[in-house]
Amino acid sequence: MAKANPPVDTQVKVAKIGAMQAIVVTLITVAGASLGYFLGDAGKTKASPKVQQYWLTVQSVKYSGAARIVININGNDFSYPAKQVWAGEGYTTPQEKMPLPIDAEVFHITFTALVDDPDPNFNGQYPSKLAEETIGVQQIPTGERTVSGIPSVGSQTLSPMIEIKYAID
Prior knowledge:
The chain is an alpha+beta fold. Helix content is 16%, strand content 39%.
């Protein structure tokens, strides 16, 4: 007597797959994932944002006496000249470059002069704010710019005008 097969539930029958079918499904999944990795964003090297280093270059200082210029750029102080004590008449000062902050979109620049007191009875230097400028990165390169001011202590003018030529590139 032959054994009768029990009735098969069609939903269960659909879910059953053979070993060969399982291998084929796995290979398709791996191939698809690999292709997606290499063609999609995960396989690409992401470009880092462009970093641009800008520089403020002091080109010259004109002054009839001895002066040291302090340039504050976004809270960072730089001294000009960097390798000698004074700038001005009778002093040969080379151009000097100062780095601007890399992550800034706007540069707040303040020029202050320390001038040697012309009075022989007093030995000291007086800080005197000459000029302030705000420059955005969209304005760079600036070309040659000139700032000037008359150093003073309170309301007393110490000496003639100081002229500073600079550029940002």
